[in-house]
Amino acid sequence: MDETKIILSEKEMPEAWYNILPDLPKPLDPPLHPATKQPVGPQDLAPIFPMELIKQEVSMERWIEIPEEVREIYKLYRPTPLFRARRLEKALDTPAKIYYKYEGWSPPGSHKPNTAIAQAYYNKKEGVKRLATETGAGQWGSALAFACKLLGLECTVYMVKASYHQKPYRRVLMETWGARVIPSPSDLTNSGRKILEGDPECPGSLGIAISEAVEDAATHEDTKYSLGSVLNHVLLHQTIIGLEAKKQLEKVGDYPDVIFGCIGGGSSFGGISLPFVKDKLEGKNIRLVAVEPTACPTLTKGVYAYDFGDTAQMAPIIKMYTLGHTFVPAPIHAGGLRYHGDAPIICSLYNQGIVEAEAYYQNPVFEAALLFAQVEGIVPAPESAHGLKGAIEEAKRCKESGEKKTILLNLTGHGYFDLSAYDNYLSKKLEDYEYPATKIEEALTHLPII
Description:
CATH class of the largest domain: Alpha Beta
Helix content: 40-55%
Number of domains: 2
CATH topology of the largest domain: Rossmann fold
Structural class: alpha/beta
Distance between the termini: 55 Å
CATH architecture of the largest domain: 3-Layer(aba) Sandwich
Largest sheet: 7 strands, mixed
């Protein structure tokens, strides 16, 4: 019980991902074709995804085996450690126990390789030569570049322009693994050129970058599209996080009362929470809290509706909480949390009250990150620090109430490529930005008519 690191051996690594689709209380609303607005079929998705991932997107099998080749690559960093944050508990003078699952253990420094490796594997099996994708802060782009290099694929990354300039070392990391990195919007695609004609100084958004990557894949026969969040198969691959955490907590005889994770598209929060959602649906008393920026308040201020997944209206229309596909976020430093929508699985669970959501300004988030770095030693990624902020606030409430809760946090990555953001915080240059309600209202007028 005095352990700081709770470690699993490689033999204890899960051999299957958990698929929540058969356990959802309500089936998900089907994705719709952007042109016909009819439910999409495998033939509609085949130009941009390999068939095995299309099957996983709709599979009703509860457990999907992790291929041996994927598990062998996972062994470079998995199982990841679970830490008891004893020094943070002491600094907060809380009776709560705080655990964090540290996904910054991976070579790219985040949880994103969990699905990048799987997606690259399935694409390679079907003869794909190149993957095109988008990235916000660069965690996803670097993970896919890493996976493609290991599996012998080419990789093209459309990086949100604001992050491209804010985080040059993420670009260098991607290029080190052989990827071509392009600031988005670019003049290389029709969708990018159209955006630049209207706004030559556009800072970009994930919705715009998705449009460029999808167009790239759809117009090249040897190329498929790869997405690092939102889709069902992505959250499926990430459940290895929560499955490992469950085993680790069992080793010390503990179980969480509340779980926190950051949310942008849903991969990190889904990865830690979905194996525990199953427990909650079966009667366990557990809270699951997704934390987002007030500058991109998708769950806390968005509407639950069908919307395009990208700005150029090329990707499928999906039912989700959305700020509108025309949404262009402020260039806050949590670049990975700036998507206009969220994963349909998470949105459905939130709509039913099974998971919760909170939003915070970026200065209080960095304050929490700095405290964590000073007592636990790891500098969190700005995205991960949102979940950390939620966990710290819960621990403070426990101090006031005297409750001895067990808090589990998904620390999705380190912030060593984000030190310019910490520099801005320490220099008091960060602004607390709240996305105006009027802009949300205007963006929502562009929702598709279903």
